[in-house]
Fold this protein.
Amino acid sequence: MRYQITGKHIDIGEALQTHVKDELSTVVGKYAERPTDANIVFSKSAHEYVCEATVHLSTGLTAQAKAHATEIYAAFDECNEKMEKQLRRYKRRLKDHHRERSEPVELFGASSYILAPEAEAEESEPETLQPVIVAEMETKIQSLSVGEAVMQMELAGAPVLVFKNEGKSGLNVVYRRDDGNIGWIDPQN
């Protein structure tokens, strides 16, 4: 597994890098069969250290965790615990489904846009209803089952996930509802 351990405006010493590699490889090796790479970023926010970790698995799924603490080692240890919990749940769900994904997740190219917010307190009508595009990026849409999409959304800690439904031919959306349940949008083709 490849590790990329970096710090934003802070120096990351060899001792911390060794600690991160040892601890994370133990957790990932325990719950994930073929991890490909891990990206760990340390930063400082006021008086707290922040640790963000992302682990990519060979199945195409991604696990993410983030933690804050007053000491840098404590921030990583808390982040590592969250990562272990996510990977344990992921492995349990794979066993519950009684099937392993034999092939990697298919990815489809798409464009992702960031739109400017509407001007506040503007009393006049806008000249056009077209939004102002601030940025355009390439993104990937995964081909997943509904269960895998929900799992991926929870692993990433995202509020919504767009995916290509393996069982059907169209794009679907899963999202976290305000009542805590998961919503699934399956448009009729």
About this structure: The chain is about 30% helix and 40% strand. The two ends are 41 Å apart (CA to CA). Helices lie at 14-31, 72-96, 146-156. The chain has a mean pLDDT of 81.
